[in-house]
Amino acid sequence: MLAGGLLAGVMYSLVALGFVLIYKASGVFNFAQGAMVFFAALTFVSLTERGWNFWLALAVTLAVMVLLGIGALEADYTFFTRGVFFVKQLL
């Protein structure tokens, strides 16, 4: 029970540290980081409940989150760069 509480506290502190780093770097409080952490937790829990090995579920969750992060970055970058380009062409 003590280890579970300590692990939960470590997770909360890591999420809070992520919020602080993003806020200090950009000046914007970004809720997407919390959504990504929540999605990672749900992915990991669903894999372990289906009987996957802990380490395999952790590796697959990490791979899924890396791909999701890269996809979100590319989608945002493409949207904003092309969006600005198209607006300039229209004006």
Write a structural description.
- With 91 residues, the chain is mainly alpha-helical.
- It has one domain.
- It has 3 helices and no strands.
- Helix 2 packs antiparallel against helix 3.
- The chain is flat.
- It starts with a helix and ends with a helix.
- The mean pLDDT is 84.
List the helices and strands and how they pair.
Elements: H1 2-26, H2 32-49, H3 54-90
Helix pairs in contact: 2-3
Main features:
mainly alpha; 91 residues
What's this model, at a glance?
By secondary structure, this protein is an all-alpha fold.
Q: How many discrete structural domains? A: 1
Question: Structural class, from helix and strand content?
Answer: mainly alpha
Low-confidence stretches: none
Output the number of helix runs.
3
Mean pLDDT equals 84
Secondary-structure element series: HHH
Distance between the termini: 63 Å
Strand content: under 5%
Number of strands: 0
For the biggest sheet, the summary is: none
| Helical residues, percent | over 70%
Rg of Cα set: 18 Å
Shape: flat
